[in-house]
Amino acid sequence: MRFGSFMDRALEEARGAGARGEVPVGAVLVGREGDVIAAAGNRTREQSDPTAHAEMLVIRAAAKRLGSERLTGCDLYVTLEPCAMCAAAIAAARIGRLYYGAADPKSGGVAHGARVFSHPQAHHVPEVYDGIGAGEAADLLRAFFADRR
Amino acid sequence: MRFGSFMDRALEEARGAGARGEVPVGAVLVGREGDVIAAAGNRTREQSDPTAHAEMLVIRAAAKRLGSERLTGCDLYVTLEPCAMCAAAIAAARIGRLYYGAADPKSGGVAHGARVFSHPQAHHVPEVYDGIGAGEAADLLRAFFADRR
């Protein structure tokens, strides 16, 4: 299935992030034609930037590449439930569909905590599909944090 | 009062953003010694970046300047209530105090909507002071949107 291969690419980015010592989360931004516009893993440590989550990096890269602050009709694949920051950026960018892997009860902002898309103020709400590649995404995170303890 | 002059600086940045055709919101990031580390107005249009809110720009610039993804003990002054994206970035950056001007019932994520700091999941909650320079901040926004109608 198509969405499976995009999530595979996101998982690759997550592994790359882990290898760099970053929390292993990866994201892929797919354009209206089904083309990968941007792919990234977390780089908060490397860039000394608390906003450099994988989702933010692909949104920024794709918006720059398309020359528009709106990514209407584009899809985002990410290995972990986005936090509130990333969820709100997804809404601001008018992303059409959000596919994510593992749930994040601790820091997620879609199905947990701030539940950014679940308020009357939400200007734009993407279609949300969760659980895709969740097992592998969660394993990567578990192994990463186990190594650090 | 000290916080008044930092908010004046944020209002200056907001006016500058409006003059560039951006939504007139400005922010200032103040370090532990009371020094301005970064100041910015919105640049979402200019940079084709939906994440380029004033708050995000000063957080990113300050984190880069200090070489750390955490801005512990720093204060953020912004002319408008932060949205959910910016509020979550403020938490991620461990900013100590948030001073904001006008309330934003439509897009705010602190006292409205997602109320990012009001969930058990919030890892870090800054002290929040609202209403500082609110009249001038709101006037700037009203004039900007009136011109566009």
UniProtKB/TrEMBL annotation, chains A, B:
<comment type="similarity">
    <text>Belongs to the cytidine and deoxycytidylate deaminase family. ADAT2 subfamily.</text>
</comment>
<keyword id="KW-0819">tRNA processing</keyword>
<dbReference type="InterPro" id="IPR028883">
    <property type="entry name" value="tRNA_aden_deaminase"/>
</dbReference>
<feature type="domain" description="CMP/dCMP-type deaminase">
    <location>
        <begin position="1"/>
        <end position="111"/>
    </location>
</feature>
<dbReference type="GO" id="GO:0008270">
    <property type="term" value="F:zinc ion binding"/>
</dbReference>
<dbReference type="InterPro" id="IPR016192">
    <property type="entry name" value="APOBEC/CMP_deaminase_Zn-bd"/>
</dbReference>
<protein>
    <recommendedName>
        <fullName>tRNA-specific adenosine deaminase</fullName>
        <ecNumber>3.5.4.33</ecNumber>
    </recommendedName>
</protein>
<feature type="active site" description="Proton donor">
    <location>
        <position position="55"/>
    </location>
</feature>
<dbReference type="GO" id="GO:0052717">
    <property type="term" value="F:tRNA-specific adenosine-34 deaminase activity"/>
</dbReference>
<feature type="binding site">
    <location>
        <position position="86"/>
    </location>
    <ligand>
        <name>Zn(2+)</name>
    </ligand>
</feature>
<keyword id="KW-0378">Hydrolase</keyword>
<dbReference type="InterPro" id="IPR016193">
    <property type="entry name" value="Cytidine_deaminase-like"/>
</dbReference>
<keyword id="KW-0862">Zinc</keyword>
<dbReference type="InterPro" id="IPR002125">
    <property type="entry name" value="CMP_dCMP_dom"/>
</dbReference>
<feature type="binding site">
    <location>
        <position position="53"/>
    </location>
    <ligand>
        <name>Zn(2+)</name>
    </ligand>
</feature>
<feature type="binding site">
    <location>
        <position position="83"/>
    </location>
    <ligand>
        <name>Zn(2+)</name>
    </ligand>
</feature>
<dbReference type="GO" id="GO:0002100">
    <property type="term" value="P:tRNA wobble adenosine to inosine editing"/>
</dbReference>
<comment type="subunit">
    <text>Homodimer.</text>
</comment>
<dbReference type="Pfam" id="PF00383">
    <property type="entry name" value="dCMP_cyt_deam_1"/>
</dbReference>
<comment type="function">
    <text>Catalyzes the deamination of adenosine to inosine at the wobble position 34 of tRNA(Arg2).</text>
</comment>
<keyword id="KW-0479">Metal-binding</keyword>
